[in-house]
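Sharing a chain and its predicted structure for anyone who wants a worked example. Both blocks are below, sequence first, tokens second.
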Amino acid sequence: MLGFIVGSYAIARRRDRTLLAVSVGLIALGSMGFVAGGSLTAYFIARFAMGVGSGGVWIAVTYSTIERWPGQEYACMSQIFAAYSIGGLLGPVLGAGGGVGRPFVAYLALAACAGAVGLAAPQPRYRREFRSDWSTVRERGFWLASTGIFFAVLGLGIVDGILPLHFSTQLATAAIGGLLAGAALANAFGAILAARVSAKAMLATAVVVVTFGIAVVGASSTIAVWVVGTAAAAAGIGAANAASIGVLFDAVGTQRIVAAVLVWSQLGIVGYLAGPLAGGAVAQSLGYTALGLIPLAAAALVLLLLVSTADRARPEPV
């Protein structure tokens, strides 16, 4: 969360390249901490640095995309979300190196290459000014976008944190890893697909698909159902991620979006924390068959806001 706050401050002052350089540097320092550190304290500090850095990278990439492709923000950000999902596949691959040090050496090299490519990119032909307007957080469309990202990342938290415990009753660890890798691919597919449909229509469809997918997986003990349901839920999560930022663009435009993106991003993190917490509590008290109640409650709020914003037009950029 701290990375989002610092990143938004930098963007408002047009320090996008500085933000990217410092953020990648923090990720590199954190990686080196895992390589050289040998204590829990060292790992905690390294993880903190990487967390701040990753938040800064997210903000830098988001505004760089908005600035470079005006009028195509929704379509381009859907591809960013797809790339984010593919990154989820690379993590376990790097982790297969074994131990603590080797995976982070590989990650450090990857982060350095990615940072170099990002910093070497030419400046956009026309610079756009982004400013913070806190009145945007009072827009109903903003809250629709924010509940949309909360719902999407809540679902991701359940898929990542709770469903593997359910799967472990019948699947070995390697099989669970394969299932989650397939889910990451489905997530990327959903994000790319989202840009082909209007943001609100895609968000409405995605919340239904995610809720149904998680509910079916939780209620079933059949591996084939787990595979299909998890893929459906993951694709819906990817679509909801992308659609939520499309709704945000429609609601507040792009020039006065800094405060809106900051709060929207923070609510996504809250969703990822809430998913495992709520999912664990429900699974322990009511069983996995009741797991669908969690996304159902969040979906009801998203759909209510969709209805309340149905007739509101997109504002003109200011």
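Comments welcome. Residues 223-252 form the longest helix (30 residues).
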